[in-house]
Design a protein that fits this description.
The chain is an alpha+beta fold. The protein has three helices and nine strands. The radius of gyration is 36 Å and the shape is elongated.
Length: about 220
């Protein structure tokens, strides 16, 4: 029996078995590129959110300075008039601030504790006036959107005169100082005793930004 083979350009033609493989590979590469692009977009969005939150937090810290300055101005005027020996709820002042506990109740967050403490001490709004809802009624700064409120605690365990009660955290009246030489005698440096006051400022801003700033002032 005679067998005849046909040659095309010197090669024998066989049936092609790889039809459609290139399309499958292209689809796999396309899916991989889509996933990579999605991951890149999400990474950029996350970075922008973090940068925005840091910006809001920094703005909140700057807003706290206004509360500290306002509290210091009131302390100086009240000290000049001699009215720091008793509480003043109107200005958020407690003359026996160190008698209050500094720890939250069980299962209470620090923010919830300070919110309770600020409302109990009649916190002062830097803008607007607090109402029946406490600090929530403070007006927000139109430029930053931050609500700022503060309280002032005298570092004493009881009200009354800071010098007479003996329950206040104050600097010593005199301090012994001696030189390094053998012939140097110990001397007393006398200075007026000062009482310490703690200013606590809470700033609530956009995106649930909450910052607390405390400052110690001596008078």
């Amino acid at each position: 029996m005679l067998t005849i083979s046909f040659l095309v350009a010197g090669r024998t033609r066989y049936p092609v078995k790889q039809e459609g493989v290139v399309l499958v590979i292209a689809l796999i590469v396309l899916v991989a590129m889509t996933l990579a692009a999605t991951a890149l977009v999400r990474s950029v969005d996350t970075t922008n959110i973090i940068a925005g939150n840091l910006s809001f937090q920094q703005a909140a810290l700057h807003s706290a300075d206004t509360g500290i300055e306002q509290a210091i101005n009131w302390l100086e005027s009240a000290n000049a008039s001699g009215s720091l020996n008793s509480d003043d709820d109107t200005h958020g002042y407690s003359s026996a601030g160190s008698s209050d506990g500094q720890n939250p109740s069980p299962n209470e967050t620090w923010d919830a504790y300070w919110m309770r403490a600020l409302n109990t001490h009649r916190a002062v709004c830097v803008l607007g006036a607090r109402g029946s809802n406490g600090m929530s009624d403070c007006d927000a700064d139109p430029n930053t959107g931050n609500k700022v409120a503060y309280v002032i605690d005298r570092m004493c365990r009881s009200s009354g005169s800071a010098t007479d009660s003996g329950s206040c955290t104050a600097s010593p009246v005199s301090t012994p100082v001696s030189g390094n030489g053998e012939e140097a005698n110990e001397v007393q440096l006398n200075a007026p005793s000062v009482v310490y006051y703690r200013i606590t400022v809470r700033v609530a801003g956009p995106r649930n930004t909450v910052s607390y700033v405390q400052s110690m002032v001596s008078l």
